[in-house]
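The instructor's notes for this session suggest beginning with a concrete chain rather than abstract definitions. Hand out the sequence below and ask the class to guess, before any prediction is shown, which regions might be ordered.
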Amino acid sequence: MEKLGVALIGCGEIANLHAQAIERSGMARILATLDRVEEKAHSLANRYGAKVFSNLEALLDDPDIEVVYVLTRHDSHAEIVLKALTAGKHVFCEKPLAMTLQDAKAVHQKAAVSEKFLMVGFNHRWNPAVRWAQQWIEQTQTQIRSLQLTFATSPFLETWAGLREEGGGVLICLGSHALDLACTLLGETPIQIFAMTARLRLPHPYLDDTAAILLRSPNGAISSLTFHDHAAPSYPNYNTAEPSRLVRAEIFGEGWTILIENSNLLHLFEEQTRSIPLDVTDPLDILGIQPEDNYFFECIFNGIKPIPDATDGVRAAHLVTLAEQAAQTGCIQSVHQPI
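After discussion, reveal the predicted structure:
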């Protein structure tokens, strides 16, 4: 099997994680890097024997590059994805697919007519404990009565991520993940959404750093999501071999409850209580990056459309937009099909 040629556009922290996963996959090799800070592009390229590009068009013209990873700041995602699909490349785009619903829809339209695949990086779907819980839910085939989901990271929003034009603040940075994961676990899109946000730590001009969202499912069930960046670094623990508490959840079904304490430990409550330890020690597996990238390459080789795709990216953008409207107006927002 000949390895896929990959280009990394954006060479920051998340690119370093994906670079490790790509190399370990055995299915792809890093051929090119591009970053607006050339030192970052050179640093990553030197590690993997890749070529540094200073121009996106030249990179996309390279026939050896078959797959493009979009790992830049959020405000450039949609533009780069559109250009890469137009150039005939498979594309992996870190969330969000776009900063606005309009741009996300434009990407969806392009992906729908492209012969190449587009996958959106909602890596927490591959969190080991989340995967176990999702498989349990699918096996039991029962509706979830209540979901309580928490995303807590150490402070990071006093950077470009917390600015309106570049990162989008807590609703886009963490809300995109939380809303996608809630829809994944619930197995459906909510019909109503309400949100509250607050700026507790960040100075102007940074956006809010704290948010809470309520979702109503078609069956009437209500789920709550909270997310913020107020945790001490040792709490989420997402760059070590220790279990991560970045995602925690309580999931209540008919006759059972799952409590996700961290990425390596769940408790299943039925007539008896059962603790389920998961022996996952590699940070790339704990974060879901390694299984996510492996899956993407397997889909390309097997000609299978990867999930999450542009439709999931549009849904996340739509729900984030509605959450922002709810927080601003104090009114519950109805969720309609965005596409």
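Then share the key points. The radius of gyration is 20 Å. The chain has a mean pLDDT of 96.
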